[in-house]
UniProtKB/TrEMBL annotation:
The lineage of its organism: unclassified sequences, metagenomes, ecological metagenomes. Residues 73-129 form the Peptidase S8/S53 domain. The keyword Hydrolase applies. Belongs to the peptidase S8 family. GO terms for biological process: proteolysis. Keywords: Hydrolase. It holds the Pfam family Peptidase_S8. Transmembrane segments: none annotated. InterPro entries: Peptidase_S8/S53_dom (IPR000209), Peptidase_S8/S53_dom_sf (IPR036852), Peptidase_S8/S53_subtilisin (IPR051048), Peptidase_S8_Asp-AS (IPR023827). This is Peptidase S8/S53 domain-containing protein. One of its GO terms (molecular function) is serine-type endopeptidase activity.
Length: 298
């Protein structure tokens, strides 16, 4: 650090981290001159979907029981897939935005960042005694290469599209789904429902654009985490494109009576959203570091 009006002697006692492209020969030179230096490749990061709902059960203790609603004069930085500012649960909650992935304005084309933001500060909807289930609409248009690097093998490929904690017993989880694909590229398409990592129900869509349904009874021994996957069998040497549209109806987790579903853990705080992963939930460590630096500076 130079003092005001000081001179630099062309040497550093230390320097902070940075991300960039470094030729191999320069990496060798750096490591030989600075033996304590730590040089890592720009690894890929990925958002977590499994069991996020279970991990947020701190809500019961933090705000409902103890009354900790969050500081009204503070904000929380969410480094994820962005945020949907038009979401009903987040109105008036988003006070900052920065995109390290692309040039899009404030948005969330994955949904994970919006979910996490709602877990933190969502205003909530529907009381515990509501007789109406929650309904989630899922849809997308994708290419095989959006998810997988390989395209030569003819085999089954699976993609998780939904996870929820369904804890109201003697209820139903209902899935109405359709998909569109070319039979010359994909010869079978499935929607699969897993409970506790075990397959419990499935539908095979052999006729594109036709609707199919899954009705799963939630018994006292089968309440908990459910995952929904799409699976398709790709023909050899094809790079298929496909779309799907699903409506999932279920009763979400209930902690105690009179709890409002989807109310945030710290619902008096605001959100500053940083987009560091793309629509498939993947990004780079360098963008995460840049977002952390921005959060620290602000």
């Amino acid at each position: 650090i130079l003092k005001e009006n000081g001179d630099w002697n062309s040497s550093f006692s230390n320097f902070s981290g940075f991300a960039g492209l470094i030729p191999v020969e320069n990496i060798t030179a750096y490591t030989s001159k600075f033996p304590d230096i730590n040089i890592n490749t720009n690894e890929i990061i990925e958002v977590q979907m499994n069991y996020a709902s279970v991990q947020t059960q701190a809500a019961n203790s933090s705000w409902y029981v103890n009354g900790y609603n969050g500081d009204t004069n503070s904000s929380i930085a969410v480094m994820d897939s962005g945020v949907n500012p038009n979401h009903d649960f987040l109105q008036g909650k988003i006070i900052g935005w920065q995109n390290f992935v692309d040039q899009e304005i404030i948005s969330d084309n994955n949904g994970h960042g919006t979910f996490i933001s709602s877990v933190i500060t969502g205003t909530g909807t529907k009381n515990y005694n509501s007789s109406s289930p929650s309904i989630v609409q899922l849809q997308g248009n994708y290419s095989h290469l959006d998810f997988f690097d390989e395209y030569l093998p003819s085999k089954n490929y699976s993609i998780k599209i939904f996870t929820a904690n369904v804890s109201k017993t003697n209820s139903q989880l209902v899935i109405n789904s359709t998909s569109n694909f070319q039979l010359s590229e994909i010869d079978n398409f499935w929607f699969e429902l897993y409970y506790d990592s075990s397959l419990v129900n499935t539908i095979s869509i052999q006729t594109p654009t036709q609707y199919y349904s899954i009705n799963q009874d939630i018994t006292p021994t089968k309440s908990g985490i459910y995952d929904v996957y799409i699976k398709y069998h790709k023909k050899s040497n094809s790079v298929p494109e496909f779309s799907f549209n699903s409506s999932i109806s279920y009763f979400p987790e209930a902690y105690i009576e009179n709890y409002t579903h989807f109310t945030g853990i710290a619902n008096a705080t605001k959100i500053v959203a940083y987009k560091v992963v793309n629509q498939t939930g993947k990004g780079y460590v360098s963008d995460l570091i840049s977002a952390m630096e921005s959060a620290i500076q602000n």
